[in-house]
Fold this sequence. Notes:
This protein is an alpha/beta fold. It is built from 10 helices and 16 strands.
Amino acid sequence: xxxxxxxxxxxxxxxxxxxxxxxxxxxxxxxxxxxxxxxxxxxxxxxxxxxxxxxxxxxxxxxxxxxxxxxxxxxxxxxxxxxxxxxxxxxxxxxxxxxxxxxxxxxxxxxxxxxxxxxxxxxxxxxxxxxxxxxxxxxxxxxxxxxxxxxxxxxxxxxxxxxxxxxxxxxxxxxxxxxxxxxxxxxxxxxxxxxxxxxxxxxxxxxxxxxxxxxxxxxxxxxxxxxxxxxxxxxxxxxxxxxxxxxxxxxxxxxxxxxxxxxxxxxxxxxxxxxxxxxxxxxxxxxxxxxxxxxxxxxxxxxxxxxxxxxxxxxxxxxxx
Length: 321
């Protein structure tokens, strides 16, 4: 069988450009795996790329299959003696549009970009992990060096990246302050946040000061959140800004405020994902799936995510595992 069902775009634009199509099944080459996709995570980079921002500048032709996160079953392995074999359950992320995305029945992915699926998670839960958790790990652990005694402000703590960032920072001993909505306050405390600031009633800069690190998952796209964050940092503190294009003046603004600043871009790192898997297996870290849509409901999944009010992650169910 050389074809498969996939949700594709034939041009960038609104959610209506997403549509189900019959496309060629990808062919595995070199050290790649062919994966039968059971579930695919939906991330903000997906709708940004779909709309003409995000990674759309790297699109060289259409149709394009979106979707970076996947959980599924190995159909073809690179070679017979490989530790991961045909029939094994795996999860990971691919890099769209360099590779075909996960909104499809099958995808190919380099071996370094996947890990064994945690046994404690369903495919739907596993598909919600890779991009968000790897992004949070990179910002909180690799860049910010979360540790005991550190004070860390995490914006948008209830989102996909945010809910992992809170848990990683807490696991490594940081004192976490996060911003969120009224309805998410108790849940954010359950994740490990020591302080929750309700952004609908309180300006965070009025109640927080002298933090070592700000994990900025908003930037200046909403109410100048990024710029306002500079005032709560200790002199020489660090702000890590993640959303692409959300704060063009970051470097200059941070320098003027006497603090350090950096962006962050996630890598499809299966080795780090394997470490995160152990935390998921032990229960030290949890993943939260807000809603699950069928593959043909990808438009609605994008519309829901674009509201900016989801808790945790949104996932597409592709097939039966």
